[in-house]
Amino acid sequence: MTEASLAGHMRMLFEHGRWADARILAAAGRVSEQDYHAASPGLSFGSLHRTLVHQLVANGLWLSRWTGAAAPEFAARPGDPTAAAVADFARLSALWRETEEAAAAFYARITDATLAATLSYTNSRRKAGSRPLHELVAQVLAHGVQHRAESAVRLTALGQSPGDVDLIVYLRSR
To answer: 6-173 has which CATH code?
Structure first.
């Protein structure tokens, strides 16, 4: 049974994303390096690799804002972070695991009170912002859904469907 609180709901959505991302990454690991990096119309960032890197960078940056930690080195580079910091699937996978573990620690600590607090931050375009933490967490969780869906479509077209990554499928599997 899940925790009936805002914090419990956010943890459940994070765990769903973690489960679905594992399916996406397992499927991505089965495609050729050429297909992994190939241009693909319809993906927000042009290729499966760039789409996954974008999701990783967004997760890492927001997590650093939430926790007050320094931005991850792979996300702190100006311009295209895929060029040197995350050049291939092996590097992406390693950084994904690190980021996911740090995120799991964050989600384990959140409470309804921490989620209600307002967080001031500076975005990637150096513009200041301020929102309740629960809205920012919800944004990151929803953002992952968009890019996970794009990646799933591309992987399916490459013959490596990650299968159904819908929330209800995850909930029934627990």
So the answer is: 1.20.120.450
Domain boundaries of the chain, sorted by first residue = 6-173
Structure-block tokens of residue 163: 């299968």
HEC readout, the chain: CCCCCHHHHHHHHHHHHHHHHHHHHHHHCCCCHHHHHCECCCCCCCEHHHHHHHHHHHHHHHHHHHHCCCCCHHHCCCCCCCCCCCCCHHHHHHHHHHHHHHHHHHHHHCCHHHHHCEEEEECCCCCEEEEEHHHHHHHHHHHHHHHHHHHHHHHHHCCCCCCCCCHHHHHHHC
Distant-in-sequence, close-in-space partners of 109: CB < 8 Å, separation ≥ 6: none
**Global pTM value:** 0.91
Query: Distance between CA 162 and CA 157 in Å, rounded?
Result: 11
Single-letter code of the amino acid located at 9: H
Over the chain (174 residues), the average pLDDT of each successive run of 10 is 82 97 98 95 91 93 93 68 74 95 97 97 88 97 94 97 96 94
